[in-house]
Design brief:
One of its GO terms (molecular function) is N-acylphosphatidylethanolamine-specific phospholipase D activity. The protein is an alpha/beta fold. The chain has seven helices and 14 strands. The chain is globular.
Length: about 375
């Protein structure tokens, strides 16, 4: 029996090693040119990893008793039925309003139409946020608001970091021929080129670096998080994004624990007309790398957002909280701090300064 158990373990190790070394999901290794930029970054520790601006622990008291709970859907961790969403057609994108229009695709995937420019942030449009369908939990809704083939041409894709729920191999494969340009944090270019995206279409950014397209300034700003695919960790950078034109300013937090960087971003680039703030997949056991909902609302105050929207929820189960917990707690804190908050259903339009959906649609689920 012992030999049998050892044999099974050995087989699992061999299969895992083959998968890790042959699956394209894990991306590629940086070119020499990228490595020079990575190693010269002030956010690189010189020991093969990027670092946060303040002390950040990946775990803050992990409990072994929590692990079995990740493999169950009980305790309202997933909705009992599919969530409401607007079905979109090609016509939707042909009539751009005068003000920026933002469309939520669930989790952190945001389609922004701004200054005649189509921008897709963290377009994770796959079914499972994992390197293999058996290694993750499926999307709450079986379908997207619109199929990838019916999306319009995309001027720019912004990526915040390389975790599977933000950078998805299958989504990039289907989107890459529609996209003119990719802006990514340091190190992520290697993943995209490995997946067939031409090198000249990708630009890498360190924190506080910026570039402009069609009159919009895009700034890669700090976040408090980590990165990694497979067994690697922190060999690529993570970031938030500022989108600023003469007429409008928008902030996207990426994944981030609460920290001093939010006030710094607000002081440098605020106030923002609208901010999309991470709110979901949190736990006290990893409190430095994801915000609690109350911190999410406070962070929107720190960046000086006129209106905020909780994101990083409503699509996948990646933590142990009830699926409605992020929006309920954020709503309560927003009311306490008198913060204006948008709560669209998936596929519903937000029009900056004009239309901010605010129904409590989750209460009927």
């Amino acid at each position: 029996m012992l030999y049998g158990i050892l044999g099974i373990i050995l087989l699992i190790v061999i299969v895992g090693a083959i998968f890790m070394n042959t699956s394209p999901q894990f991306g590629g290794k940086p070119s020499e040119e990228s490595l020079v930029r990575i190693e010269n970054s002030p956010n690189y520790n010189g020991e093969g990893a990027f670092k946060n601006a303040e002390l950040t622990l990946a775990t803050t008291g992990m409990k072994l008793s929590s692990f079995p709970k990740f493999f169950t859907n009980g305790d309202n961790k997933v909705p009992s039925e599919e969530l409401p969403q607007n079905k979109l057609t090609k016509d939707y994108f042909e009539n751009e309003p005068n003000q920026p229009r933002i469309t939520w695709f669930g989790h952190s995937a945001m389609f922004i139409e701004m200054e005649g420019t189509n921008i897709f942030i963290d377009p994770m449009l796959g079914d499972v946020p994992a390197p293999h369908p058996l290694l993750g939990n499926p999307r709450f809704n079986k379908e997207l608001p619109i199929s990838i083939e019916n999306l319009p041409e995309i001027d720019l894709v912004l990526i915040s970091h390389d975790h599977y729920d933000h950078l998805d191999y299958g989504s990039i494969q289907q989107l890459k021929n529609k996209v003119k340009q990719f802006y990514v944090p340091l190190g992520i270019k290697a993943h995209l080129t490995e997946w067939g995206v031409p090198s000249e279409k990708i630009k890498e950014f360190d924190w506080w670096e910026k570039s402009s397209i069609n009159g919009i300034e895009f700034v890669s700003t700090p976040a408090r998080h980590f990165s990694g695919r497979g067994f690697t960790r922190n060999n690529t950078l993570w970031c938030s994004w500022v989108l600023k034109s003469e007429n409008n300013s928008i902030f996207f937090s990426g994944d981030s624990g609460y920290g001093k960087h939010f006030k710094k971003i607000g002081e440098k680039y605020g106030p923002f007309d609208f901010a999309m703030m991470e709110c979901g997949q949190y736990n006290e056991q990893w409190a430095h790398i994801h915000m609690m909902p109350e911190e999410t609302v406070q962070a929107s105050v720190d960046v000086q957002a006129k209106t905020m929207m909780p994101i990083h929820w409503g699509a996948f189960k990646l933590a142990l909280h009830e699926w409605t917990d992020p929006i309920v707690r954020a709503s309560n804190k927003a009311k306490e701090l008198n913060v204006k908050m948008a709560t669209p259903i998936i596929g519903e339009a937000i029009i900056v300064e004009e239309k901010y959906p605010s129904s409590k649609w989750w209460t009927s689920k």
